[in-house]
Design brief:
Helix content is 43%, strand content 15%. With 533 residues, it is α/β, with parallel strands linked by helices. Helix 1 runs antiparallel to helix 3. 47% of the residues are buried.
């Protein structure tokens, strides 16, 4: 039986309606949902439609509308920060997501069903890997993120990272659709029961494996960490002139409400210091005098805080270096994490920047005026090109700083762990999105980093959710949205490195290699067909 047909006018709308069930199921399964299991069949409606369409242009149109619906349903809240920027992101990202689907369509029709469905898995995971590693990166919808609020299902992420979750989802969907296809072809035949057994194995073996993963116990904690959530509205208050000193006083007051003799680290959120700071002349800045006084009163602590930093240069350092208004030289702006104590200052400059809001590739610089800020800078941030570990003065806590969006990048954070980081500190300002699913998804994604690295994650969010996350992905002492406060917990550390930390995203790199081979197979198969014709 040939499943593929030429759709009439009415059928096209039927096919589009069925295809749109896929983004609805993906949305229903996404964190923070109790329906995560739907992700294992969410792609089936789209695969059913693909099996019946013979024209790649029609498949592209249906795929694009499906991917656009998925983006809108899951990440609509981005529009709370910038409507124009979010629309551009939705339309562009949806088009990029069609590339692996279009390649799958061509491979399936030239090399056959088996290679087609293998290519569907390889192409999609390769797309996700590339999307983690270029300047237009928006990996929020990477399939492995779907289990962020179900850590008990995915303890094996310490071996595979989130690519393992993506493989689990895609393989389960392909097998689920093949089960339906086999039933349509031959009913409850021997082949049907073989596919059913394989599908059930694909679904449940990872769940069983997760229960067998052993998480090494950590030594008892020597000291505690204090996290501050000031709850300052970034739209109406945070960057309003004349309120900077009061905000600094609030941060210090909340910190001192929890500090004790065993506190070694205090963590404030992204851009907690609400004025531009010359990082080379930090100690000379009069605005920071209350911070130096705070550190003098508590000499045992180190302060990790977000700042809007900049540095001055006599010559242009990069394409993001800007000429000073008086023409005397250049400067670069940074979204920085600063670790301060009574005598030292260490800095890390955010490297994974938000497309449009914080960075644009050189070939898109002409579009810069069209983008509004998400709390970033109109001219674009410069960045560090390598991981920088920030060490407390006694080297007890060696910090992997993740500024906001960087906590989505699992493989990138392994660079810090390989350099000796023993905790991850996420500092963020999710208030731009308002009380939407965005900040809840963002917090849950940090749980994935804890599992991948088996490190404690310390999370300070301006408006919430601030919390501690243990190496198994469990959340402690969470401060809810729109509430000020400070939390404290004894945090133990370990130098153990997981398989994923040591080897990085090996699974995605394997899929990249498979993609090259599958594209070659597709081209060769196409050439043979043309020759026979």
């Amino acid at each position: 039986m040939n499943e593929r047909t030429t759709p009439g006018f009415a059928s096209r709308f039927l096919y589009l309606g069925i295809a749109l069930i896929s983004p609805l199921l993906l949305w229903a399964a996404w964190p923070v949902s109790s329906l995560n299991f739907l992700v294992f069949i969410a792609w089936c409606p789209l695969l059913w439609v693909e099996d019946r369409i013979g024209n790649w242009k029609k498949w592209l149109a249906i795929s694009y509308l499906s991917m656009l619906a998925w983006n809108l349903l899951v990440t609509w809240w981005v529009a709370k920060a910038s409507l124009e920027g979010s629309l551009g992101a939705f339309f562009a990202n949806s088009l990029i997501m069609c590339i692996p689907l279009l390649l799958f369509f061509w491979t399936k029709r030239t090399a056959g069903r088996m290679w087609g469905y293998i290519s569907f898995i390889a192409y999609w995971l390769t797309y996700e890997y590339i999307h983690f590693n270029w300047d237009l990166s928006w990996p929020w919808l990477a399939l492995g993120n779907a289990f962020a609020d179900k850590p008990g299902w995915i303890q094996w992420y310490e071996y595979t990272g989130i690519a393992g979750g993506g493989l689990w989802i895609l393989l389960s969907n392909v097998l689920a659709y093949q089960l339906f296809y086999t039933y349509r072809q031959s009913g409850r035949s021997r082949a049907y029961f073989i596919v059913l057994a394989v599908w059930l194995g694909a679904l449940f073996v990872p769940l069983l494996l997760s229960r067998t993963v052993s998480i090494p116990s950590l030594p008892a904690a020597s000291h505690n960490i204090v996290v501050v959530q000031p709850n300052i509205d970034p739209w109406d208050e945070k960057f309003e002139a004349g309120k900077e000193a009061a905000q600094l006083e609030k941060l210090i007051r909340l910190s001192e409400s929890q500090i004790d003799a065993n506190t070694r680290l205090v963590v404030w959120p992204e851009t907690a210091v609400p004025v531009g700071i010359n990082e080379d002349r930090l100690r000379e800045n009069f605005f920071l005098a209350p911070i130096w006084g705070f550190l003098q009163r508590h000499p045992q602590i180190n302060l990790l805080t977000g700042i809007e930093g900049y540095r001055e240069f006599s010559s242009k350092q990069s394409r993001l270096s800007r000429r000073k208004p008086d023409g005397s030289g250049y400067y670069e702006a940074y979204n920085s994490a600063a670790l301060l104590d009574t005598s030292r200052s260490q800095f890390y400059h955010k490297s994974r920047l938000v497309p449009g809001a914080e960075v644009l590739p050189a070939f898109l610089q002409f579009m810069a005026p069209a983008f509004e800020k998400f709390g970033g800078t109109d001219g674009g941030y410069a960045r560090d090109t390598a991981a920088v570990v920030l060490n407390t003065d006694d080297h007890e806590y060696r910090i992997a700083p993740a500024i906001c969006y960087e906590s989505v990048y699992g493989e990138y954070l392994t660079e810090f762990i390989r350099k000796g980081a023993n905790i991850i500190c996420v500092i963020t300002n999710d208030g731009w999105w308002g009380n939407t699913p965005g900040y809840r998804q963002h917090m849950n994604y940090a749980r994935l980093r804890a599992i991948e690295t088996r490190r404690w994650v310390v999370r300070s969010a301006n408006t919430g959710i601030s919390c501690f996350i243990d190496p198994a992905g469990q959340v402690y002492a969470a401060l809810p949205w729109d509430q000020e406060g400070a939390i404290k917990l004894d945090i133990p550390v370990s130098d153990r490195q997981t398989f994923f930390v040591r080897h990085g995203d090996w699974l995605s790199k394997g899929m990249l290699f498979a993609t090259v081979l599958l594209i070659i197979l597709t081209v060769v198969s196409f050439a043979r067909r043309r020759k026979k014709a």
